[in-house]
Design a protein that fits this description.
Blueprint: H1 4-19, H2 21-36, H3 57-68, E1 74-81, H4 89-102, E2 108-112, E3 118-123, E4 126-131, H5 141-153, E5 169-175, H6 184-201, E6 205-210, H7 212-246, H8 249-273, H9 284-291, H10 293-308, H11 313-340, H12 348-368, H13 371-378, H14 395-403, H15 405-420, E7 427-428, H16 441-452, E8 457-464, H17 474-488, E9 493-497, H18 499-509, H19 524-537, E10 554-561, H20 566-583, E11 592-593, H21 595-629, H22 632-656, E12 659-660, H23 664-692, H24 697-724, H25 732-763
Parallel strand pairs: 7-12
Antiparallel strand pairs: 1-5, 1-6, 2-5, 3-4, 8-10, 8-11, 9-10
Length: 773
């Protein structure tokens, strides 16, 4: 696999590092310090919209709705009394306090609750518009009765701000975010403080805090939690594993320095390049820490092997670098290609994750051939004499495998087929609340709100009227009513917010509150006058801009849905759009939009975008291996152990878990380079034995397993454990990603230790040595 000229160059380089080890160490330290200074430029992005690229069609539809109407970035305070209903004094007073104080939250532009609901009624020829509950004073029996009667019969409130059974109520606060700013954390902190004040003032009421602002905040907080908890845990796991397998203090220290320097440098360079941090890309340091140990392990395991064979430290170090130079470089290159392919993802945080990790992997290679040999040359590095550590020796395994090659081959193929058969069971289910486990307060509050009050998944439709002031046209209103009724009839929909409910109430009010007139006005001018009179009576911040565009040429119909999957949400959107297309004029055709819909499509779009990226990565990696092997036949053979792990991992996931989020599309690309590591290292040693030593296929397998088997066991055990740590993340995207990659790595062990050697012994069974071409 290697070339004599390359070997000579590597030997020269290794001797240079040994001779000038102090200069190399100083150069590495200065370069690292310069890179790490860039970390000050890292920016943590908290807005959940960052998960969507600028060309994402669902994001464009949502932004169009936000630009037309008041933005829907919100926080919902959910009030659930321990006993009784939401109409008792303490709950109404708590809601009133929250309503008044919420106007003071940063960037707050609107507050809606049952207490400040703009109740309308007629007095002689006048339309009275006022808060349903006065802002101050004691709540009288009459006031309480009125709040109950109006709230429980008002379509704008039931299943939105008051539960259908009256057991819970909500206060909805809308925010106008500054351009280019991400104040979600500031808003969330202020909202939580307010909730604490109200809890203290009114004990016996559960007050949850949820809404879109809290989604962004939870992304950020989950990322911080992962950094604070998972990274130290991963460091500890790596240290214990290296110490256990290598049985050398200096080996442990050296490998850990390479991993830590690689991680620090990658984050610093990311800062210089302006790569952001998000809930997904915040896992990059932990991933780099895990992957960065691989090169060092291979070099130090070979070093120990050569020293036990009788070489002194310097001779063994030169030989280790010579033997590992090409496979270490190739595995680095393939891993970098794999992670860079994440740039094909439509999810920008995965782009950032791929770029950061690729930088870290490249730096790990650089440190492994500079920092690591320099430290080994400086310190009193020793290895225990005698046979290789039996924990990692591959000699016995090689004999067992060669003896049972046929049975192992068929068992491995059978396992692969059985596992792959479960892949169709995998279901894509992206609902942002379920991105967080029950340890996250946002998840608990949202689940409780969904159970007791209303849903958090919202679908908006901006239904055009075709002309300025056209929303007053009776024909438009009649079709809008039919659409609203159709939405209410859908099993997923729990509430529909529509302008028609206001117009029907105004029509009743202006006919002396006669219930027979609770219907749409049949005259365009009359409808326009009703709206004008109503809008002029509304207080600041409670206008109709959240439902009517400026030119009164379109209105927003908002559907709240409950108990749905991502597929249900997508199908509701399609059905609603089809209904509008088939039952209304073209001007009224509208696209469903909303944050929940954006996430419901993200897996499908990510799979489509990553398909090309993964294919390109696979082609480039296969090309690199084929060129390095200088054998098309063995290059083709190497494809099998590189494809098999992903098939096995996804099959096992389909058998055990089924549901997966949008991280699924990135797993193959991210793990592909890692999987190839074992194939490259194994074939590198295998071909050295065949070409340089004239070994038979069986003897070449023995040599490969004896020389590289231990290092592969160590690196793959640590890699699998490292990624498995992500299963402890409270953020499902990271947990799924890490666990799937860990399963894929374990499957790669099966493929490279069982399938690849047995395939070689069947397909490359010539007894004569291989040539160099």
């Amino acid at each position: 696999m290697s070339h004599p000229a390359i070997d000579r160059a590597v030997v020269t380089y290794a001797k240079f590092v040994i001779r000038w080890r102090w200069l190399v160490l100083l150069t590495v330290l200065v370069g690292t310090a310069a890179a790490v200074m860039g970390a000050k430029n890292l920016v943590f992005v908290t807005d959940y919209k960052y998960f969507f690229g600028p060309d994402n069609p669902q994001l464009k539809e949502y932004l169009h709705v936000e630009e037309t109407y008041t933005k829907s970035d919100n926080i919902v305070f959910v009030l659930i009394p321990d006993e009784g209903d939401a109409f008792q004094d303490k709950v109404l007073n708590a809601a009133r306090m929250l309503t008044e104080q919420s106007w003071q939250l940063p960037y707050s532009v609107r507050v809606d609750s049952i207490t400040n609901f703009q109740h309308t009624w007629s007095y002689e020829d006048d339309l009275i518009v006022e808060d349903l509950l006065s802002k101050e004073g004691e709540i009288t029996d009459q006031a309480r009765t009125r709040v109950r009667e109006v709230s429980m019969n008002e379509p704008l409130l039931v299943n939105r701000l008051i539960a259908a059974d009256g057991g819970a109520t909500g206060v909805n606060v809308t925010f106008q975010m500054p351009e280019g700013g991400s104040p979600e954390l500031e808003i969330a902190d202020a909202a939580r403080l307010l909730a604490d004040e109200v809890r203290e003032a009114f004990p016996g009421i559960y007050i949850g805090v949820t809404g879109e602002v809290m989604i962004s905040t939870s992304f950020n907080e989950s990322a911080e939690r992962d950094i604070q908890q998972l990274t130290p845990l991963m460091l500890l796991a790596i240290i214990i594993a290296i110490a256990f397998f290598m049985r050398s203090l200096w080996a442990t220290i050296t490998i850990m320095l390479v991993a830590i320097f690689s991680t620090m440098t990658a984050m610093g360079i990311s800062g210089w390049l302006g790569i952001n941090i998000s809930a997904v890309s915040a896992t990059a340091p932990t991933i780099i820490l895990t992957i960065a140990i691989a090169d060092g392990v291979h070099i130090l395991v070979t070093l120990a092997y050569e020293m036990r064979a009788g070489k002194n430290k310097y001779e063994a170090l030169v030989e280790s670098l010579r033997l590992n130079w090409q496979p270490v470089f190739l595995t680095t290159l393939t891993t970098v290609i794999g992670f860079l392919s994440l740039n094909a993802s439509e999810v920008p945080p995965f782009n950032d994750l791929g770029n950061k990790t690729a930088i870290g992997v490249a730096m790990a290679w650089l440190y492994s051939i500079s920092l690591l040999p320099a430290i080994v040359a400086i310190v009193p590095y020793r290895v225990s004499q005698g046979p290789q550590n039996p924990r990692i020796s591959g000699a016995r395994f090689a004999e067992w495998l060669i003896k049972r090659r046929n049975a192992v081959f068929y068992a491995a193929i059978g396992t692969l087929i059985v596992c792959a058969s479960f892949i169709p069971r995998i279901e894509l289910n992206d609902l942002f609340v379920q991105y967080f486990d029950e340890t996250v307060q946002f998840r608990r509050d949202t689940d409780l709100m969904t159970e007791r009050l209303t849903g958090i998944y919202i679908v908006h439709f901006s239904v055009g009227a075709g002309s300025e002031q056209g929303i007053s046209d009776p024909q438009y209103l009649e079709k809008l009513q039919r659409f609203s009724d159709w939405l209410r009839a859908q099993p997923e929909v729990s509430h529909v917010l529509t302008l028609n409910d206001i117009l029907k109430r105004l029509n009743k009010n202006l006919h002396s509150d006669d219930p027979d007139y609770f219907r749409l006005p049949d005259d365009r001018e009359l409808a326009a006058q009703y709206l004008l009179l109503y809008e002029m009576s509304l207080p600041y911040g409670l206008d109709l801009n959240n439902q009517i565009d400026v030119g009164k040429s379109a209105t927003k119909v908002t559907a709240t849905v409950l108990g749905v999957s991502a597929e249900d949400l997508r199908q509701l959107k399609f059905r609603a759009e089809d209904w509008l297309a088939g039952n209304t004029p073209e001007a009224m055709h509208a696209k469903g939009a909303g944050s929940a819909l954006m996430f419901s499509f993200i897996s499908l779009r990510n799979i489509e975008s990553m398909a090309s990226g993964t294919v390109i990565a696979f082609f480039l990696i296969s090309l690199v291996i084929a060129i390095a092997l200088r054998s098309v036949r063995l290059g083709i053979i190497s494809l099998i152990p590189n494809i098999a792990p992903a098939l096995m991992a996804f099959g096992l996931w389909g058998l055990i878990v089924q549901d997966v989020g949008f991280s699924v599309a990135t797993v193959t690309a991210a793990s592909l380079g890692i999987i190839v590591d074992a194939t490259v290292h194994f074939l590198s040693k295998y071909l050295r034995a065949r070409r340089e030593q004239g070994a038979s296929t069986e003897d070449a397998v023995r040599y490969a397993l004896r020389t590289v088997g231990g290092a592969l066991w160590i690196t793959f055990a640590i890699l699998a454990a490292g990624f498995a740590v992500f299963a402890l993340s409270s953020f499902k995207i990271n947990a799924d990603f890490g666990l799937l990659v860990a399963i894929t790595i374990v499957a790669a062990l099966v493929a490279d230790f069982l399938l690849l050697p047995t395939i070689l012994m069947r397909a490359d069974a010539r007894k004569q040595p291989l040539g160099s071409s």
